[in-house]
Amino acid sequence: GVRALVSILQSWYSLFTPTEATSIVAATVMSHNTILRLSLDYPQREELASCARTLALQCAMKDPQNCALSALTLCEKDHIAFETAYQIVIDAASTGMTYTQLFTIARYMEHRGYPLRAFKLASLAMTHLNLAYNQDTHPAINDVLWACALSHSLGKNELAAIIPLVVKSVHCATVLSDILRRCTMTAPGLAGIPGRRNSGKLMSTDKAPLRQLLDATISAYINTTHSRLTHISPRHYGEFIEFLSKARETFLLAQDGHIQFAQFIDNLKQIYKGKKKLMLLVRERFG
Q1: b/e sequence 51-61, b meaning 16+ C-beta within 10 Å
Q2: What DSSP character marks residue 38?
Q3: pLDDT at residue 266 greater than cutoff 50
Q4: Which UniProt keywords are given for this protein, alphabetically ordered (predicted)?
Q5: 209 preceded by cis ω (within 30°)?
Q6: In angstroms, rounded to a whole number, what is the distance separating the alpha carbons of residues 21 and 12?
């Protein structure tokens, strides 16, 4: 009965791990089945819910990595408990959480209708991430694109706040150019407003905050090109030429992009003139 359940919830730490307590014990006690089986009245349900929330917050404090999301879910219906659970996540973000866990909670916050909290958590997640130049299939890429889309939908200030974090964490040229392309397709802050797609002013890649992203993307293409050329085999030549074509699209977004790209190609022809066949292909495609 109710008293036994309350007793288990209150002494969970001597019986279960924090993960077991939040994911199995509290979830079972709060379930619809339990309410029906014990034919609980309103005060009894409230008492159990209150004990379950207390347990959830204690577990989140003890093991934020594994219990924070369960705690938020269990505390959804109680404003104060929900705020407390959110604060526990924020406090643990810098030390005890991985970017995967923070992105998961950020997406949950957006789903619950708290886009600004989602943005804050996504920003914290970005500070833990490091995407190298050759990690173009990294599992976190979808989260990065989602975080940028979220910032873009919130407005110019949020986009301006996330771009320096992206530039610091992501060194993969193709991911950066994808973000850049998405940011230049619509004006910030208008994503969620139907019928206003074209009335907003599109952002220039020559001004802040997109300028920083454009410069970082061009740098990433240059660095990646040199990295790839140090150990390139003839069977990857075709793929490499395609990569340079993608790079050119990004260079051309800058005001003097065509000049920059021409200089870049001239440089390659100088430095790698020993790779005759490859440089012949470069000349054929890019002059």
Answers
A1: bbbbbbbbbbb
A2: T
A3: yes
A4: Metal-binding, Zinc, Zinc-finger
A5: yes
A6: 7
Element (H, E) at 243: helix 237-251
Residue 84 identity (one-letter amino acid): T
pTM for this model (two decimals): 0.89
Report the alpha-carbon distance of residue 25 to residue 47 in Å, rounded.
15
Rounded CA gap, 153 and 192, in Å? 7
C-alpha–C-alpha distance, residues 169 and 122, integer Å: 13
Sequence spans of domains, the chain: 126-188+203-286
Q: Is residue 175 pLDDT above 90, yes or no?
A: yes
- Give the C-alpha separation, 146 to 107, whole Å: 9
pLDDT, tens digit, 9 for 90 and up, residues 229-263: 988 999 999 999 999 999 999 999 999 999 999 99
**Cα gap 107→119, rounded to integer Å:** 9
Mean pLDDT of the chain: 92
CA distances from 276 to 16, 168, 243, 247 (A): 67, 36, 18, 21
CA contacts within 13 A on the Cβ side of 79: 0
Q: What is the 3-state secondary structure (H, E, C) of 77-110?
A: CCHHHHHHHHHHHHHHHCCCCCHHHHHHHHHHHH
Paired tokens of 161? 């706040």
**Which tens digits make up the pLDDT trace of 11-20?**
999 999 999 9
Q: Which residues contact 96 (CB under 8 A, 6 or more apart)?
A: 64, 65
Task: Categorize the per-residue pLDDT at 196 as very low, low, confident or very high, splitting at 50, 70 and 90.
Answer: very low
